[in-house]
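Q: Structure for this?
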Amino acid sequence: MGALLSVAIALSLLPVAAGAGNALTPSAAPRIVNGEQEPADAYPWLVSLLSRSRFERDGAYQSQFCGGTLTTPTTVVTAAHCLTDQDTGARQDPADILIGFGPSLRNGGMRVADVTSLAVSPAYVRRTASNDIAVLTLAQPVTDVTPLVPISAAEVGALTAVGAPVRAVGWGNTSTDSKFYPDVFRVGRMVVFPDAVCGGGEDWVLQGLRFVGFSSSEADAAVMICAAGVSRGGLVIDACQGDSGGPLVAGDGAAARLVGIVSWGEECATHRPGVYTRLSSELDFLASVNAIPVADISLPTQAPGLEVLPRAGRLIASITPPAAGSAITAMAATAVDPTTGQTANCFAQPRPAGAASQCAIEGLTNGVAYQVTAIVGNELGNSPVAGPVAGTPIPLPDPGRITKLRALAGRTVVATVTPTDAHGTELTVNQVACAPLSGGRVVTAPVAGRKVTVKGLRPVRYTCRIEAANSYGELQSPPKRVTVTR
Ligand code: ARG
């Protein structure tokens, strides 16, 4: 780290070298060499990495050593090389790092945040700068700054294709041949270079300027993105010392994504592109340290759907999560006996993709008309209450279930069944019924004992279930499939 001399980064842009550049003397008012100043409110997630001791003594400008990106309220993504001694491989102590928020390093009261831990990608290789990525975890969530979401696998094609517009942002050097570190960050507008120029050794021409590609011993496009820009005046736009760790961004506004991290280059703004850590190859690492936001969670503002199914001494509540709100983590139903006021509950397990979940409210009295309500919730709070829906437990038989269903030669199947519970009533039906999957005659056999043999089937696929009925009604077991043999 000591090697990161003074400070600050910015995007350096300099006049292009010989050849193409000759005639291009930066004219009248060369704006910030090759990057530009842009409205700071478009880059709220850009942070500066500050050395704490230097910050306390000399302020933000003198203590800035790298850039970073807030990707969630508690995580800053930066480059591994910013935090690693290049000679010894030693890591910086997180207690020595402060995260600076705000566009200017010289406006005095810069807001800073403490870092509690540092995670470097296990795949980071110092010598090649492969997988040059690290995550700093903040001591307190920063909830009033909009984070920049890392690119997802699905967005790779659209956001990092050859020629895709990207921006590098930072307080790094703005000069190629001397040191000029700006107070306010600069933005360099660039395009993504072909992979063949980023480890394939090919050259590439961008707006009339020829860029020399990196060979496979220099760069690896699987984990790196090469990018550079050419200004209207024909100057190369590139990141430079002090920009390291800062973001390479694709997309605008709410669609902006973090696609790369300033990693390395050959000098700055030469005839070679800058090299960025390819974020899409680091998503597992980022997820493992919680640096990728989980899907948006919102309060469930609608009541869930509720259906009540009567059973013997209990009520089955079937709860469907509402469309509004997300990431439901809890579902509950309550039955109230309106005459006694007694209540009983059950809790259902939320299932993915908005599917209905069921739970059984147990210990109820047959014949009592209960009032059933349901509610769902997530970490933000609970939905409005669904219901009440009336439900009266009745002593319907419990058909049990088929635990095994086996085809025997001779168009016969044998079902192994659990006992049917008549709940003290008289069963009028208790049988295994098998129906051909493609339709046709249903074949039945009475349940007597644990093994039920069903004969006279056709050699096709069947679904079989237990049917049990008494004077209150009929219930069926879950179905099981079998292919009948001749
Ligand atoms: N490694 C440099 C740093 O520590 C950043 C290099 C980026 N250089 C470039 N030409 N794109 O700040």
